[in-house]
Specification:
Elements: H1 7-13, H2 18-32, H3 42-52, E1 67-69, E2 72-74, H4 76-85, H5 91-117, H6 122-148, H7 152-176
Antiparallel strand pairs: 1-2
Helix pairs in contact: 3-6, 4-6, 5-6
Length: 177
C-alpha cells in the first residue's frame, strides 16, 4: 500500500492545512488545466439553459456593476441601488425604468440565444450565464421597483394628514395651557 502512493501524494496527504490544499489545487489547475478551454458539451449547455429558467436563478447573483448598452458603459448596479433608495418615482423616471427594463430584457434574450446556438468553451458559457443571470436580477429588481413605487400619492397624503394632525394637537395644547 505504501508503494501505491507516491512521495508527492504522501506529502499532500500528511499534515496538510487548508491553505496548503488550496495552494496545491491551484498548482494542479495550472499544470493540468481546469477544462475551461474545451468546448461545452450539449449536456452542459442544456444544464445552463435550464438553470437560467429556474424560478430563483437570480438569488445570490450580483447585478452587473457596469454594463454596456447602446455603445455606452453605464453603472447598472449603482443605477438600480439609487432607484431602490428613492421613496417615490416620478412618471418620467418610471418611463425611463421601463425603457431600461426593455433594453435589458432584449440583451438577456440575446445572451440566451448565443448560449443556445453558438459554439462556446466552458469558460465562455460560464461568463455568458453569469451575465444573463445578473441581468435577470437587475430586471426583476427594476420591475418590482416600478410596481412598488406607485404609492407616492398615498404616502404624500398620509404625510400631509399626519402634519395636519400634529398642527391640530399643538393648537389644542396651546389653547388649554
Amino acid at each position: 500500500m505504501a508503494d501505491a502512493v507516491s512521495q508527492e501524494s504522501r506529502h499532500v496527504i500528511d499534515g496538510t492545512t487548508p491553505k496548503e490544499v488550496l495552494r496545491d489545487l491551484k498548482a494542479a489547475v495550472r499544470r493540468y488545466g481546469d477544462g475551461a478551454e474545451r468546448p461545452i458539451t450539449p449536456e452542459e449547455r442544456h444544464h445552463l439553459e435550464l438553470r437560467l429558467h429556474r424560478m430563483l436563478v437570480w438569488v445570490g447573483v450580483l447585478t452587473p456593476f457596469e454594463f454596456e448598452l447602446g455603445g455606452k458603459v453605464m453603472p447598472l448596479h449603482d443605477i438600480v441601488w439609487d432607484l431602490l433608495a428613492k421613496d417615490c418615482l416620478t412618471d418620467e423616471e418610471k418611463e425611463s425604468v421601463r425603457n431600461l427594463i426593455y433594453k435589458l430584457q432584449n440583451h438577456e434574450r440575446v445572451d440566451e440565444e448565443v448560449l443556445h446556438n453558438s459554439q462556446l468553451t466552458v469558460a465562455e458559457a460560464d461568463v455568458l450565464f453569469k451575465e444573463a443571470s445578473g441581468l435577470l436580477r437587475a430586471i426583476l429588481s427594476l420591475k418590482t421597483l416600478v410596481g412598488a413605487k406607485n404609492t407616492c400619492a398615498l404616502k404624500s397624503r398620509a404625510s400631509q394628514r399626519r402634519l395636519e394632525d400634529a398642527k391640530y394637537w399643538l393648537g389644542f395644547l396651546k389653547q388649554i395651557s
